[in-house]
Write a structure and sequence with these properties.
Layout lengths: L2 H18 L6 H22 L8 H25 L1
Length: 82
């Protein structure tokens, strides 16, 4: 997939996610979102440069899964309070 299609797919996914589960106004959620975006950008940079990482892909997936679980748990907590 070329870069422009990939960017369009990401933008569409972000738009759909924002409609389904808008970000709560919580600084910790914002921090988790930035952390996950930084992690993904770094992984993409390393992939472009064909750099081998110390972490196997399973560890990277596990880290992103943990971030996602924490994010959605906080979003559900905030949603249930409303």
């Amino acid at each position: 997939m070329d870069g422009s299609r990939s960017e369009r797919a990401r933008a569409r996914a972000r738009h759909l996610l924002a409609q389904i589960a808008p970000l709560p106004d919580d600084p910790e959620v914002q921090r988790l979102r930035e952390l996950s975006m930084d992690y993904i950008r770094e992984a993409e940079r390393l992939d472009r440069e064909r750099v081998t990482t110390q972490e196997p892909s399973e560890q990277i997936s596990a880290a992103l899964d943990a971030i996602a679980r924490d994010y959605f748990a906080r979003a559900l907590q905030n949603w249930s309070k409303e």
